[in-house]
Design brief:
The protein has 192 residues and is mainly α. The protein folds into two domains: 54 residues, Arc Repressor Mutant, subunit A; 126 residues, Tetracycline Repressor, domain 2, CATH 1.10.357.10. Helices cover 71% and strands 0% of the residues. The protein contains nine helices and no strands. α1 crosses α2 and α5 crosses α7. The longest helix has 27 residues. The protein is elongated, with a radius of gyration of 19 Å.
């Protein structure tokens, strides 16, 4: 008869997510995971697989928890929603005392393209954000909030790159003026 787990796998996954987010993949050892999760190495392997498997599960959880694009899909004026979305990213960066940044961006920087599975997860996260931004910008154009000649998909790619840049700068040097000025200029570019 299989033994029942003496720990909560969901809580352990959340602790792993926090540790990987703080330190990254390479700087987190199995010993670090054992200590932070408070469970035996064998239990980690039996429940989650190896360190890479656990990292992938933690990254998936991070993406699922961060539903920041949902307000962009709501009916009504789109530009205020886009502005609020961008402002929320800046506010989150400025409030991050640990300077963890975004786990997806951190993963992209740490792994690059050397792990195709990890790269697909990063790209999928960005593609989802880009699609939601494009949808909001299509709505903005249809409502006359941006000029008819603007390409909502190109603007969505521009804003995606801006947001990821905000995350990188926020991790290294969260200068409020720099980040807010970037958002101001992006909103000007969208509307002109």
């Amino acid at each position: 008869m299989p033994r029942t787990k003496e720990f909560d796998p969901d809580a352990a996954l959340q602790k792993a997510l926090e540790l990987f987010w703080e330190r990254g993949y390479e700087a987190t050892s199995m010993a670090d995971l054992v200590e932070r999760l408070g469970i035996a190495r064998a239990s980690i392997y039996a429940t989650f697989g190896g360190k890479r498997d656990l990292y992938l599960k933690a990254l998936e959880r991070y993406v699922e928890q961060g539903d920041v694009v949902e307000p962009l899909s709501q009916p009504g004026p789109a530009l205020p929603a886009i502005r609020a979305f961008l402002d929320a990213y800046v506010a989150e960066c400025l409030a991050d005392e640990l300077r963890r940044g975004c786990m997806v961006v951190n993963t992209a920087v740490e792994f690059g393209s050397r792990d195709p599975v990890v790269s697909r997860k990063v790209v999928a996260s960005w593609a989802e954000m880009e699609a939601v931004l494009a949808g909001a910008l299509v709505r903005a154009r249809a409502q006359g909030e941006i000029p008819a000649g603007k390409d909502p998909h190109a603007l969505a790619r521009f804003l995606l790159v801006l947001v990821q840049g905000v995350r990188v700068l926020g991790r290294a040097d969260p200068d409020a003026r720099r980040l807010r000025d970037a958002v101001d200029q992006a909103m000007n570019a969208v509307q002109i």
